[in-house]
Amino acid sequence: MEDVVLHLRNDTAELERLAAELARFGSAHGLSERDLFQVTLALDEVVTNVISYAFDDAAEHEIAVRLRFAAGEIEVEVEDDGRAFDPLAVPPVDAQLERPIEEREAGGLGLHLVRRTMDGLEYRREMGKNVLTMRKRVSRRMS
């Protein structure tokens, strides 16, 4: 199966289509349920954040998602034309997790999940676009 490229609108209704396409991709490559769940969780978090926070206007914007599988690794690239935002520059929330819940600051746990479930994250700003690449080593489903 070749790479899959999805062109999503900045609308949360697109998350269902994204999940369905990722499920098809995972099935085609025989990914384990656990790996597919973790990739889906991370991708849902990233795309939800782009839809919710990246754009300064109410216009329709495109979010491109590329799925690639090679050498036991799934690579997911998310590209958007929102305001510049490097999620890797956000400090880890580990210290915050040690505090009582009522003393914690809101937000940041989604990115924490992305960092914990993926094996590699890279960010770049290219031609006015945010490009986040996530990699995960995966195991094949047992037949």
Q: How does this structure look, described?
A:
By secondary structure, this protein is an alpha+beta fold. The protein is 34% helix and 27% strand. The protein has one domain (4-137): Heat Shock Protein 90, CATH 3.30.565.10. The chain is built from four helices and five strands. It has a five-stranded antiparallel beta sheet, covered by helices on one side. The longest helix has 21 residues, at 33-53. It is globular.
Mind telling me the CATH superfamily name? Answer: Histidine kinase-like ATPase, C-terminal domain
Structural class designation = alpha+beta
Choose one word for the global shape. globular
- The average pLDDT score comes to 89
Elements, N to C (H/E): EHHEEHHEE
From the alpha carbons, calculate the radius of gyration and give it in angstroms.
16 Å
CATH topology (fold) name: Heat Shock Protein 90
How much helicity do the residues have? 25-40%
What is the number of E strands? 5
N/C terminus separation: 19 Å
Sheet-strand content, in percent, reads: 25-35%
Number of helices: 4
Stretches with pLDDT under 50, minimum 5 residues? none
- How many structural domains? 1
Read across the widest sheet, the strand sequence of neighbours is: 1-2-3-5-4
Describe the biggest sheet? 5 strands, antiparallel
Please write the CATH class name.
Alpha Beta
Give the name of the CATH architecture: 2-Layer Sandwich
TL;DR?
The chain has helices at 14-28, 33-53, 94-97, 109-117, and strands spanning 4-9, 62-70, 73-80, 120-126, 129-137. It is of the alpha+beta class. α1 (14-28) runs antiparallel to α2 and α2 (33-53) runs antiparallel to α4.
